[in-house]
Specification:
Layout: H1 2-31, H2 40-49, H3 56-74, H4 77-96, H5 106-126, H6 134-145, H7 149-167, H8 170-192, E1 197-203, H9 207-217, E2 222-228, E3 239-248, H10 252-262, E4 267-273
Antiparallel strand pairs: 1-3, 1-4, 2-3
């Protein structure tokens, strides 16, 4: 048990270290040499650096302090401590790294700078840390006023990029927005993974055939609910099973084809799934091993 905890701790901080390296590459090799900005606290530090002769690493630490203090009262101390370590690590890497400019193409700079930075931020967040204090601000405002974290960060960055367009140039602001969009998307992909899942609820008289077809042809887990058909003016009808399952988005057309072949009048509800854990959701069952499907 002690060994596993030690291994988990080293793994966590090892991945955070990797995130710091990737984020610093995105900043020092792409965005910073070309005057591009990122969103959040890093963006503020980059913006201020264009007017004052202070190293970015110092500015990053200075502007992170208020958000870390706020985080002390809004999130767990463990997250704050790991975030302090992460931000210090990022500041040190930015201070001592000396990457040569890889390209002068502004489009490539925005895309690849955002890619490295987003991957670094995403890896850090997956391991319980943040490299940017604006996420902590989002958590605080969400707790106090009910505004979503995503909306808080969006408004924060709209103001930041608006100031950039006004005091520096519209072109820099536009390329910075592109870099931020890439960063945000890659961060999401790093945190959530590349698998995109859809929840499906199926109501049909031929639920037994549909259940068997899904099990045999798709090999996914499912949960069956007991339901009663036709509650309304026509009164209650026979009991039946409601099928609930989660599949990868790429299999949706095959799912529809399977259902339509059995019951064209089946009632189907689809909804996005933000996260799945456990069961057989992360891997489809090997039909060669077993025809018996455990319920999700």
């Amino acid at each position: 048990m002690k060994y596993s905890k030690t291994y988990a701790l080293f793994s966590e901080y090892g991945q955070i270290f990797l995130g710091i390296v990737l984020a610093s590459i995105g900043l020092k090799a792409f965005l910073l040499p070309n005057g591009f900005l990122d969103g959040g606290v890093t963006g503020i530090a980059l913006l201020v650096r264009t007017f004052v002769d202070i190293k970015l690493s110092y500015l990053l630490l200075i502007f992170s302090v208020p958000f870390l203090i706020l985080g002390f009262y809004t999130v767990s101390r463990r997250i704050v401590i790991k975030s302090i370590i992460s931000i210090l690590g990022l500041a040190l890497f930015i201070h001592y790294e000396n990457f040569e400019t890889i390209t002068n193409d502004k489009l490539l700079i925005a895309i690849f700078g955002g890619l490295f930075l987003g991957a670094g931020i995403g890896i850090a967040i997956r391991n319980g840390s943040v490299l940017d204090g604006s996420e902590i601000l989002g958590v605080y405002i969400n707790d106090q006023f009910g505004v979503s974290i995503g909306q808080v960060i969006l408004i924060f960055n709209i103001i930041l990029f608006g100031i950039t367009a006004w005091v520096i140039s519209t072109e820099v602001a536009l390329y910075s927005i592109l870099a931020y969009i890439v960063t945000a998307k890659v961060t999401d992909l790093t945190i959530e993974g590349f698998e995109d899942f859809i929840g499906v609820t199926i109501v049909s008289k031929k639920y037994m055939q549909i259940e068997e077809a899904i099990m045999n042809d798709l090999g996914v887990g499912m949960t069956l609910y007991k339901g009663t058909r036709g509650v309304g003016n026509s009164g209650k009808h026979e009991d039946f099973d409601i099928i609930h399952t989660i599949i990868n988005r790429i299999d949706m057309k095959k799912m529809h084809r399977i259902i339509n072949e059995i019951d064209e009048k089946a009632f189907i509800i689809e909804f996005d799934v933000n996260n799945v854990k456990g069961g057989v959701l992360r891997h489809y069952i090997d039909k060669k091993k077993s025809k018996v499907l455990p319920k999700a």
